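Dear all,

This email documents one entry for the complex benchmark we are building for the journal club exercise. For each entry we list the sequence lines for every component of the assembly. Then comes the predicted three-dimensional structure of the complex as a token string, followed by one or two observations. Please use this as the template for your own entries, and keep the labels exactly as they appear.
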Amino acid sequence: MLHALLKKIGLAAAVTGVAVAGMSNASAQQDPIRVGTFLAVTGPASFLGDPELKTLQHWVEKINNQGGVDGRQIELVHYDTAGNAGKARTFAKRLITSDQVDVIVGGTTTGTTMAVIPLVQRYEIPFISLAGGVPIIDPVKKWVFKTPHTDRMAARKILKDMQARGFDKIGLISGTGGFGKSGRKQTLSVVGDYDIEIVADETYGPNDTDMTAQLTNIANTDGVDAILNFGFGQGPAIVTRNYEQLGLKLPFYQSHGVASKKFIELAGEAANGVRLPAAALLVAEKLPDDDPQKPVVTAYKKEYESTYNESVSTFGGHAYDGLMIATQAIKRAGTTDKAAVRDAIEQTSGLMGTGGEFNMGPDDHLGLDLSAFRMLEIRDGEWELAE
Amino acid sequence: MWNRFRNPYAGLPVLAIVLAVLPLAFSNPYHYDVAIHVLINAVVAVGLNLLIGYAGQISLGHAGFFGLGAYTTGILSGVYGWPPLLSVLAALVVVGVLAFAVARPILRLSGHYLAMATLGLGILISIVISTEGWLTGGPDGMIVPTISVFGWELFGETRWYWVMAVLLLVAVWLALNLIDSPVGRALRAVHGSEVAAQVAGVNTISYKVLIFVVSAVFAALMGTASAHYSGFITPDLAGFFHSIEFVTMVVLGGMASTYGALIGAVILTTLPQLLTGFDDLEMVIFGAILMAVMIFMPRGLVPTLTARLRKGS
């Protein structure tokens, strides 16, 4: 039995030993610039993480083929979080302390991003997040930046359009998932700036299959001029179908959460006439030729679609913007010294990305304004500029 | 002489030495981080093993207790400003009382029905955490303050490693103690045949309730520790998949073996970290390893290996 016990312990030691050996650092080379990333490539948020990773991999390769940044090659270190905040935290720690990356571009979801913020702040490493949430950059955190527009900006863009069309009483319907909830909160917080009143406020669960009751409630409220749906996934498509089934004629707005071809497929005919704010990338070819953003978005779209043979999404665009901001900051700083790179990122100005023109500053670690969003209308199953 | 080594407590000092020596192999905080996650999972697995391995009751909802513990201390210390030690204690009480309250009706069930009931309980807890955003921060999670005791702040990987290591030693000692007590013998009788145990005068219900509450509190304790260690919690902690992970650790390591549960936690926590290099193949290899172990060692890793070694020696 002593023998058995010792063997048992030996096994434990062996397992741990193997574990530790496998985790040890790759030798710290001075030459390449190490860009770390952790993305939700699998799991429920994979439709965000997958195009993000593909974008990073392709453009890192492209930059390297063109001679790298300041003659230094880029090395991309990637881990898959599956959207799990705990895993994100461990991988971020691994990127920082074991892989010793120079900058992190990643964090697909707000949850995974928020989980690593305490780490990047403590280890003082520049971090560009690809997630939407407002709390990532508000209040401003010294080492944290992000590229996607916030849901507050989307709410403002929609409300501005409503105001311009003379609507002052609207009905709100939102999903109870993370996206819809945050959108509802941001809409309520800024609605006062546009002289618009929310007269009906309905919600639906992520797995609901019929929202006619909520829509009927809204339609029966006195004086409603327009309806806004803030939601994500299949919910908004069902709302849109129900909307048509009820024969409602009110102007109908959706959020940027439906800015994917999938929504038009799911909602079918009913999608026609829906207005939504979205990045210019969706209507790349339809932008007027004098639009300053046109060259960037058409080039990105063409290259992504020809490389991966699938239609482009705004999410991959966020990763492209993050990589460009990071590499250009390193180029301007002329070093990978973390503090210098951080300062250079903060000084980003006039950088035209797929999400809009980035003009960052000490108080603004996003750097986009409302012009980054375009108001689109769906006509005959296609995105068209509404403005 | 031989009997001395049959004593399961003999493993305890060895475990202590391993835990004490292990940091020599760590070269950066990431290694500590992985070790801390191993320790967290190990304590939960040791507790869950009492329920699954010894009492023969399945629970697919233990992550619910883990998450409830994490969120209770997170909310009390973060939102209401309680001192963290007090909020940890409160979390244990909350989970203990909840587990006690649901244990009687739930443990009346057996087999698939018991699995379903615990599954439902875990999912309920995780739904409440996700939807009550005003309190819990919703799906995006919430920030949890660090623990400080008399001005000494429990922060950083090294300090947490030692705290977790002590927790594991205490948990293993408690578990061994419980198994070796009349309660443990009664539990094994319940596992063998509940009717026979009742006939022999064992109050099966109250023993099952006791062990259910103990294992829930183990999970809650590590939930609170993990919340204060990482400083940020999300509803994933209480999710269904997390529960399955805990059960897998117990089954893989070997049911009714405290050290087996421990080894299960070590493997299931470190393996994904080792396999990340394989990218898309990661899940395939991970699954294949789990399947191979379960096919060739259906009793779990440690019981099978010890049985083989015993036969050999």
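Observations: Chain A has two domains: 33-150+297-369, 152-285+373-385. Confidence is low (pLDDT under 50) at residues 8-30 of chain A.
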